[in-house]
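We treat protein structure as text, and this decision shapes the records that our systems exchange. We quote a single record here, exactly as it is kept in our systems:
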Amino acid sequence: MNIIQYNPDLQIKNNALSISKKATELIKKFHQSSDGLTLKNWKALSEILDYAAEAEQTIADQKEYISNLESLASTDMLTGLLNRQGFENEIENAIARANRYGEISLFAFVDLDGFKRVNDTYGHNAGDAMLKRVGELLIKSVRQTDAASRLSGDEFGLLLSKCDVEKAKERAGYIRHYLKKITLNYHGNVLSTCASMGFAIIDRNVAMEEIFDIADKAMYENKRERKQTRNKYHLT
């Protein structure tokens, strides 16, 4: 089954053509009158103006509706963060800025530790509640020039732009510290979380796949090291 992709620009163009056709008919009606500027002509002109105002509002409403649809298409409904598609668009923009202006950004790949245990022990509602809390914290922790995403499951992404790489890593470390402080009271059970992180620098001539691969490997290395540390000191 072939699916035809919706084209909002074409839809607006078609609406504009329809409006133009109707307005043309009304204008002809006005000019073809032999009565001069009579009440009849003024009524015709008033009809044109009313229709034009209504048409303008219709197009404005449709543009807003399309904008809302585009926003929904790039948003994770559970957390309010960008979804993977929306985040990849932000990464592509960061790559373009790096190639054009030499701007360096940092991608932080975040994976919650022990999240499966929350789902298995307390159920998916508890897991969803925890993911929402994480989303709230990430939204508050990034600047307008940054981006935060729920990539999938308990995996999140941060794009830290227009800042020194070491300072960006320091900021990401603070965010991880705040994640560790999250507590969730779920039916009398106090749940908490922590996270492993991996970084990838977005610089000139780097590809999307390479960025994700570097950050993914670094995150799993960080997770392994932190697990070894916990086992060594019997930490939980």
Q: What stands out?
A: The CA atoms of residues 17 and 23 lie 10 Å apart. Helices lie at 8-31, 39-73, 84-101, 115-122, 124-141, 165-180, 208-233. The mean pLDDT is 81.
